[in-house]
Amino acid sequence: MPVIVFKSSQLLWVRVAALIFSCVAFSVATEGAFLPHGGMSDWCMFCWVFSFTCTLLVLLVELCGLQTRIPVSWTNFPITVACYAALLCLSASIIFPVFFIRNESHYARKTQDYRITATVFSCLATVAYLGEVSLSKARPGEVAGYMATAPGLMKVCQTFVACMIFILVSSPVSYKGYSPLEWCMAVYCICFILSMAVVVMCVGECTGWLPISFPKFLSGYGLLAVAMYVSATILWPLYQFGDQYGRKGSYAKNEIAVAVLTGLNLLLYLADLAYSARLVFISV
């Protein structure tokens, strides 16, 4: 019992720290960073505000003891939110200084200070959310929800990486005109939908609605996703960078990033499949 109380106390303070850091990040950026509207500035603001709002919701529910009245699985919801928040704040911590601090020396010193402060607190929020995930994830032999296990956390990472791919391929659209590239886009969409469906079913406690057992669904879907991502990992660079198809210019950076993220997601799906094959899932 003392160990459980100590862990709960640690989680509380880590969440409070994440709440404060994310709040300071978007407050400072709003107050004096003078960010342009649209594009990456809106993305960074969304990352911080979404993380702050979800963390505030989790804290209010737990402090008021309303877990049993919320129509979601409370063994899965908080860690899912924390994992998404960690990834969002991490992306903002990388994107914000690249777009709004580097090569932006023409702005007033005070504006630069606001932007640097927002970046620092974004990094601190990332560390706090990673700490929450580390404290909340399932330990060997521990009974926990699916999202607290390694495969569950990888589902979150898979959907996040897919979202990054969608952003990169849509501005400008870089997959139309060639059927293999359109197939790659279909791979990203299908696998994203299935991974997100798993996350939603676990958080909403809907896994019993499936016509087959949940572990069998995970195994079949994992094999399908790996096979599809193998094809995308081969076809995307072949048709984007081949002498006959490859295109030049600044937009080529987006295609390179998509190729790297495709390979990253393939590794995530392979690891997910390997874990799922040997995981004994106990539903709480």
Average predicted local confidence, pLDDT: 86
What is the helix content?
A: over 70%
Compute the separation of the termini in Å: 19 Å
**Overall body shape:** flat
Write structural notes for this entry:
This protein is mostly helical and 284 residues long. The protein is built from eight helices and no strands. The chain has helices spanning 2-32, 40-63, 77-100, 109-136, 150-170, 179-203, 214-241, 252-278. The longest helix has 31 residues, at 2-32.
Could you give a quick summary of the protein structure above?
The protein is mostly helical and 284 residues long. 73% of the residues lie in helices and 0% in strands.
